[in-house]
């Protein structure tokens, strides 16, 4: 315990220093800045408020056109459906970071405006809990967690990853058995990763209710989410390397892929992963690291690499500052250059 909390405070000290640097850039937020904190450092009130706001999003009616997407049953489903539909445009490419920055921000904004959650979007610092996910504040299954492990599923084989690689499963693999999201119904999917190559079938919009599935996997979390793995990403010096080390390649999942795999099944669904409430905390951490990496050098802020097609495919041109990005019913279209600076263009938050 001692070493965990020591590491925790060291990390807080490091992150505070970086944020101070970030403030040297003039902000256009005029003092209205939300503080995004690590889940473990939220007060009980803040945690319960966040959980009840997520449940509120799962109860409010959708804004998606349900003639087109009949599976959409809630505001949370609006976020999931949009992500499913855009998966092959916004991952493993040149708009991954900026698109998800605004996606998480739109979620944070909806939590406040529609569900009364007044605080910043929390994040999940992988390194703090990677060797014991089931006892982390985020996944311990208590009333102040986002639910715990899934029931044991004896039929799990290994994960096949990349070019013939293999990763072990853990002890879960079934529906979550404890905590606030034990009765959550996921409306879409699950979707096979192979669809990343072929595209979605037209019936992806169908209502296919199932439970929130988890398989908390310390082996994967430790391998790809420890501080050394994060340092590899943070020590890169151009955005192409930052993107590639964050999301990994082949069996090296990187912290981005590693986070998805370490929680397993629902969060691992390449298309419908925002159905797991932990998604927004995972991507909060990615956004935090990107911001900390950007403020080291002003020219990193404006650096772009890749297209807006999965695997940087050439169906779309190289991303530029003028490239338009879209979020459907969730929010207005934005130019990429508006999405690159925390503290500007409505991104009024900071990381603690
Ligand atoms: Cu995503």
Describe this structure in words.
This protein has a single domain (29-351), classed as di-copper center containing domain from catechol oxidase, CATH 1.10.1280. It is built from 12 helices and 10 strands. It is mainly α and 352 residues long. It has helices at 2-22, 44-57, 75-90, 96-115, 126-129, 195-198, 218-225, 227-234, 239-247, 254-263, 279-294, 298-301, and strands at residues 34-36, 150-152, 159-161, 165-167, 173-176, 185-186, 210-211, 324-325, 334-335, 349-351. The strands form 5 sheets. Strands 1-10 form a two-stranded parallel sheet. Strands 2-5 form a two-stranded antiparallel ribbon. A two-stranded antiparallel sheet has the order 3-4. The radius of gyration is 19 Å and the shape is globular. Helix content is 38%, strand content 8%. Mean pLDDT is 91; it is low at 1-24.
């Amino acid at each position: 315990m001692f070493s965990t909390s020591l590491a925790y405070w060291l990390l807080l000290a490091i992150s505070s220093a970086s944020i101070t640097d970030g403030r040297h850039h003039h902000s256009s937020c005029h003092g209205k800045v939300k503080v995004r904190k690590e889940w473990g450092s939220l007060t009980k009130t803040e945690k319960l408020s966040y959980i009840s706001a997520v449940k509120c999003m799962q109860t409010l009616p959708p804004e998606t056109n349900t003639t087109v997407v009949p599976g959409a049953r809630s505001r949370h489903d609006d976020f999931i459906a949009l992500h499913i539909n855009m998966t092959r445009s916004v991952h493993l490419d040149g708009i991954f970071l900026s698109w998800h920055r605004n996606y998480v921000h739109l979620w944070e904004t909806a939590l406040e405006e529609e569900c009364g959650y007044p605080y910043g979007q929390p994040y999940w610092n992988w390194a703090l809990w990677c060797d014991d996910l089931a006892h982390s504040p985020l996944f311990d299954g208590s009333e102040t967690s986002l639910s715990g492990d899934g029931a044991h599923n004896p039929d799990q084989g290994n994960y096949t990853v990349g070019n013939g690689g293999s990763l072990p499963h853990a002890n879960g693999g079934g529906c979550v058995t404890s905590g606030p999201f034990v009765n959550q119904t996921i409306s879409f999917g699950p979707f096979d990763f192979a669809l990343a190559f072929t595209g979605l079938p037209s019936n992806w919009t169908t209502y296919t209710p199932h439970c929130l599935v988890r398989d908390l996997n310390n082996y994967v979390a430790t391998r790809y989410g420890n501080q050394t793995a994060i340092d590899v990403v943070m020590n890169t010096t151009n955005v192409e390397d930052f993107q590639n080390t964050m999301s990994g390649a082949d069996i090296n999942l990187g912290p981005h892929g590693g986070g998805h795999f370490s929680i397993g099944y629902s969060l691992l669904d390449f298309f419908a992963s925002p159905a797991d409430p932990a998604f927004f905390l995972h991507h909060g951490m990615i956004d935090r690291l990107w911001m900390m990496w950007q403020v080291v050098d002003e020219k990193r802020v404006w650096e772009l690499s890749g297209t807006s097609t999965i695997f940087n495919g050439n169906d779309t041109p190289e991303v530029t500052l003028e490239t338009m990005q879209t979020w459907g019913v969730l929010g207005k279209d934005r130019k990429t250059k508006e999405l690159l600076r925390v503290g500007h263009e409505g991104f009024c938050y900071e990381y603690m």
